[in-house]
């Protein structure tokens, strides 16, 4: 026997299969279909959810249900990168400053900055908690939280660590001003001016800026958009070059979005341990996985204590709170001293509010919600690129996070496109800021952090048109 | 003709002069005196305020009015310091960590940490503003505030700058994570590993930790507890040593409390400019002056743009908010890039709340109130030391701020006293953390940041007794 909603689902599915409803077109609204088929709106919703789970239709916020564009995506995938095999000084600050100036402009279509839309976050609940603590216990928190940061927040993070395969105690953690400070402290504790740090290529420009600020050199490793750095090249590099540390993303790196298989992670750890090179890992996107399981970070696979772990809440709930953390492992003394020297400690009330939120307010449910949302955004943006960009464009296929790496057909230069796009009110991140060696001039990064909307869809179409026009010239 | 309150004041003053009421004893309460002399409580209060203004009596919070101990203080003043005339590597982190571990323990009598008592601050109003903004506009502030920090806060700080003799525009400022980050960014932008920085001696241990964290060397300058560094020695030093920057407190330095006369500030600026050595100034105590006028910071006297200015709200209203600022002057590019690499930006809501507080909530009145309070605390603590500590003890006479520098008769060592004091539930800062060359073993710093109370008075008496006992051995 079939339930009413299953009957309705089968009816719609048949219309799609038979070509009556075409991919990308709107499905009748819940009210329309419930009128037409004499079922309750609840039953109609159940049917649509079932179809959605089966990938037959998809919902778009504020817009209704659409037949899934289930056709194969014709875009190619970027090839493994091939940066120069030598350490180089870094000078990306000027380029980055120019990007950030625009990326924080709220009047532009926000494809430039890898931040989540504040409206998508659970921040209303979090802000209410902050408000309550500020009113009721403000003076209790008008103090310095040194040396390691709010004790309750460290307890809550330690509790969560079992979810990513670690068993941490609150004392293993130091709260930082976002992941940025965590990475800076980690780099400072393992390297001195002139030393070489091995990184993915392309890599997050903030890492390059940290390397630049510390007068270090970056050695960019060839990186597969699917599976991360090239193990053989790393092995060769460690034999020939004095690498002070390896700085890698744990999962869904920014901008490529790669997922390093667990076995490969173990092999990288073995290799680094053999050469006594510490690993600094950036797990800021780890909680935003699209698959069934959270990928384990390196530190959970490292039995030698050779990994410094960095993360934050900036991508999942509160970029404005600036709360991150570091697991300093065997660099505890150095990192604590550097933390004190750099910022003493972070703001107390935001830490207290996050602790309360983690303890009471359904962070897991929130994560489930935004994972689904970012996954949909990534899918829709990929399809929009597929429809709009020049033939030959390649796009990454991240299994988590919310950025896409786009490789334009040469000789297109994303820096030229950047200036033209700004004039049309669109911001994105040109590829050159992700390299220490001025590579990726024909690439760009698009953020899918904002809820899918007509304006974003049109933004992508405009970008595609600009690229096609430039190519035709 | 005399008003009733003037008559009453004259009556009490006569009792004091005649020796009926002895220094340090309690004056009749307002209720008692209004009953006895048949005046209203308001009139009695007017009379007591008049006597207080004339220095005849003094009020103690929660305790009533006392005859002022108007006798001269017998304590000597610490002599000009005499550190070694050479640059030295810095390694104070371990000592400082041990201090901070105890200094943040709320069960100890809080003489260790130079923070104001949260209860003395206007933080209730500030916290209410934070709560309101979080509830009403939380998502608006759940963003990064790069590159320079909250625009309205920068406007409000720029407005205030005229009070210290500057005319700044909001664009001249960068918001930092407390003064700590400001000083770190300043040091980073002028010096590289191995370079030498000239500092006061003794100086704030946080500066020494920053110097240590950056692998710089400290050159400690002889410093007069009244008027600051020795100009002649600075002149000689600049001729013989490659000093990359001079890092000085603008006013009431921590721990000595010196006040550098304006003419001397100009002379220091001239000298540094002649040698092309930038000045980094730390003006964190500038608003807490006991005299009639706020001392001008160096930057207000510097017509050459050779000064980097650092300050914060941590000593005046909100240590827990971690909001400071820097005026990078001609190091703008470097400091902005370093800020981005270090922490990206600070928490948004605390910045927004401070901006609103500065614009609307009587910060000037608040400052007037805490200036008076800290001045009283410093006076009472000085007198308590005078009563309790061994003969030969010397104490600084700061004209602002809220710390006292105590020089014990040799061979007393404050580190031994520290351990014994902890056992009695008292924390202070031993002298050795204020020097790069292990000096000041017989000195200590006492914080007067907490409201005067019996427990603090007894804490000082216990410290004095411990010191006397150690000396007798």
What is the topological layout?
The structure is a homodimer of 473-residue chains.
Chain A (H helix, E strand, L loop, with lengths): L3 H14 L12 H8 L3 H13 L3 E4 L3 E4 L20 E2 L3 H11 L5 E2 L12 H15 L13 H10 L13 E3 L1 H13 L5 E6 L3 H9 L3 E8 L3 E2 L1 H10 L2 E7 L12 H13 L4 E4 L15 H4 L5 E6 L11 E4 L4 H12 L4 H13 L2 H26 L5 E2 L7 E5 L6 H10 L2 E2 L1 E2 L12 E5 L6 H19 L1
Parallel strand pairs in A: 4-15, 6-7, 6-9, 9-10, 10-11
Antiparallel strand pairs in A: 1-2, 3-7, 5-12, 7-8, 11-12, 13-14, 14-17, 16-17
Helix pairs in contact in A: 1-3, 2-3, 5-13, 6-13, 7-8, 7-12, 9-10, 14-16
Textual characterization of the structure:
Two copies of one chain form a homodimer. Chain A is an alpha/beta fold and 473 residues long. Among the domains of chain A are: 4-67, Winged helix-like DNA-binding domain superfamily/Winged helix DNA-binding domain (Arc Repressor Mutant, subunit A); 123-360, Aspartate Aminotransferase, domain 2 (3-Layer(aba) Sandwich). Chain A has 16 helices and 17 strands. The first copy, chain A, has helices spanning 4-17, 30-37, 41-53, 93-103, 123-137, 151-160, 178-190, 205-213, 231-240, 262-274, 298-301, 332-343, 348-360, 363-388, 414-423, 454-472; strands at 57-60, 64-67, 88-89, 109-110, 174-176, 196-201, 217-224, 228-229, 243-249, 279-282, 307-312, 324-327, 394-395, 403-407, 426-427, 429-430, 443-447. In chain A, the strands form four sheets. In chain A, strands 3, 5, 6, 7, 8, 9, 10, 11 and 12 form a nine-stranded mixed sheet that branches. In chain A, strands 13-14-17-16 form a four-stranded antiparallel sheet, with helices on one face. A two-stranded antiparallel ribbon of chain A has the order 1-2. In chain A, a hairpin with a 7-residue loop joins strand 13 and strand 14. The model of chain A has no long low-confidence stretch (mean pLDDT 92). At the A-B interface, helix 4, helix 5, helix 7, helix 8 and helix 12 of A face helix 4, helix 5, helix 7, helix 8 and helix 12 of B.
